[in-house]
Amino acid sequence: MGFSAFLILVSIIQNYHEQRLQDEILETTKSYMVFQTELENRIYTNIYLLNGYVAYLKTECGLDWRQSPNYLSSLVENREVYIRNIGTIMDTTIVSNYPLEGNESTLGVDLATIESQKQMVLETKKTLKKTFQGPMQLVQGGEGFVVRVPVVREDTGYWGQVSIVLEAARIYEAIDALAEKTSLNIRIYNAKEDSFYSYDENPMKDPLVFVISPSLMNWKVEVTPITGWSHFGATHIIVGVASLLASMIVGFLSYYSLKTNYRIKHNSIHDSLTGLLNRHFLNDYQELIISAAERRKALVGLLLLDLDNFKNINDTYGHGIGDEVLIETARILRKVVRTNEAVFRIGGDEFLIIFPMIEDATVLENAGNRILEMFHDEFRIKDHDVWIASSIGMGVYPTDGKDFEEVLQVADNNMYEHKKSKKN
């Protein structure tokens, strides 16, 4: 009886600790969403100014950059921006920089000959897409982040680029302020996996990992509460003593029974078969993601996936193989998605991937293509060759609906249209 009581005590304290940790993870995720939304807003406010300058160059002054200083002055005047300078680049050579003072040394520099900038300049030229680089040492001295936008003529194609340099020191100050505001310990890595910012230089234990703007900045962010995750302290000791007294009364309860109760609580958030998030957690998560998107005026993508003829797999091979098929599907989806994208099992053979803070539907289309390619061949499951095919449907908030359920219904309709087209 005494050993049984001890096991019960251990289980109660462990369950209490793990439940608090799960609550902390959810609250930390919510705080991080506030951090990411505000940081992206501040940085993208600066980046959007470049789009205006490109339009001005092409429509107002016929690509004569010498007419631009007055426009650029009005562009940044009375705005809370982190811009150090705005450059105009013909082909790959800097022909102007605003303000000129302090940037004279950059004029005439061919960035394709500067080792630290060559790759991104040529990538912008080749792909005709916006690029983000940094932090890096600048030609004119100092450290900054560089954003480049291609300038493309309708008649002759690529003409050059415009760029902004964001002051690294001011970006770090903004991150400091947001980390303190949200009570988070933050460490950030750039696209090359180099750490360039740490709120606290001490090692982080079991951080959550997110990605900011994967299509442009592609910053990996490690996050913990600013004081670290909860650990056993005075509160836990008091609970432990109280639990010990209680265990003398309820000692007849089985240790394994308590572990089963814990698993039930765990499964209220995770699917017990695949380990994916489940529909119960989806209710909390969708509110968090939609509210963050509304604050930032961003898009949220939904990709719904259903296995074709799954009933036939169960009927032919048995439900054991059917379960293995679902587990294999979950493994594939985990492999396809990125860190900040969440995968749910929301029905028997129905799965949902949520893509937060996307810029357009291209992210969904690319993910959908990757998934369909992964299901192209037969799978070897417990000595059986099983053909697994899937149908997918997509929806974007708020483009396809005013709330999460409407967009999910659009994705569902698109999924069944896809399934129907394959039968035809």
From TrEMBL:
Cited InterPro entries: CHASE_dom (IPR006189), CHASE_sf (IPR042240), DGC-Regulatory_Protein (IPR052163), GGDEF_dom (IPR000160), Nucleotide_cyclase (IPR029787), Rev_trsase/Diguanyl_cyclase (IPR043128)
TM region positions: 237-258
Source organism of the structure: Petrocella atlantisensis
Gene Ontology CC terms: membrane
Pfam family, one: CHASE
UniProt protein name: Sensor domain-containing diguanylate cyclase
Domain CHASE span(s) in chain numbering: 94-195
Chief site of localization: membrane
UniProt keywords, alphabetically: Membrane, Transmembrane, Transmembrane helix
